[in-house]
C-alpha cells in the first residue's frame, strides 16, 4: 500500500506550507480558516479534508499550483501530481484569464479579496461559477511574499457550451 495515497496532506512539504497558508489567513482576515490543533500534520489533514475548496499557488511570474485539498481535486477533476505541475491560470478558460489576472493584482495590492466570483474549468472541460471566494496573499514568517491562496464553498456547474 502506498502511504501517500492514505495521507496526501503529509506529502509535498504541505504541513509547513499550510501553516503559512493558515497563518496568513488569520493575519489578514482575523479568524481561522479551519480550527487549529497546534500540530502542523493535524492542521494539514484538517485543511485537506475541509468541506470547502482550499487551493494555493506559488509567487512565480506564472504561478504554479502548489496545494489543493480534496475538494479541489474533485471539482477540477485532477490528481495531485498533475495539480502540482499546473499553472494556476489554467484553472480559468482563456477568455476569463484577464479577469483572473485583475483579481490577483487586486489581491496583491490589498492583501485579500473577499467578494470574488468567476468562471473556472476542470481538466475535463466542466465549467463552474464560483461565488463568494476569498483570495489572500501568503507571507512566510520572515515577511516574504510566497504566493496566494483561495477558498470558497459556493459554486454552480454551468451548462456545456
Percentage of residues in strands: 25-35%
Biggest β-sheet, characterized?
A: 6 strands, antiparallel
Q: Unreliable segments (pLDDT under 50, ≥5 consecutive)?
A: none
Roughly what is the average pLDDT, rounded to an integer? 93
- The portion of residues assigned to helices is 25-40%
Computed CA radius of gyration, to the nearest angstrom:
15 Å
Quickly give the structural class: alpha+beta
Choose one word for the global shape.
globular
Distance between the termini: 41 Å
Helix-strand topology string: HHHEEHHHEEEE
Number of DSSP strand runs: 6
SS summary, helix count: 6
Explain what the structure shows:
There is one protein chain. With 161 residues, this protein is of the alpha+beta class. 33% of the residues lie in helices and 27% in strands. The chain has 6 helices and 6 strands. The protein has helices at residues 3-6, 14-29, 40-48, 70-75, 80-83, 97-110, and strands spanning 53-57, 65-68, 112-121, 127-139, 145-152, 154-157. Strands 1, 2, 3, 4, 5 and 6 form a 6-stranded antiparallel sheet that branches. Helix 2 crosses helix 3. The chain is globular, with a radius of gyration of 15 Å. The protein starts with a helix and ends with a strand.
Mind sketching the topology for me?
Layout: H1 3-6, H2 14-29, H3 40-48, E1 53-57, E2 65-68, H4 70-75, H5 80-83, H6 97-110, E3 112-121, E4 127-139, E5 145-152, E6 154-157
Antiparallel strand pairs: 1-2, 1-5, 3-4, 4-5, 4-6
Short description, anyone?
This protein has 161 residues and is α+β, with helices and mostly antiparallel strands. It contains six helices and six strands, in the order H-H-H-E-E-H-H-H-E-E-E-E.
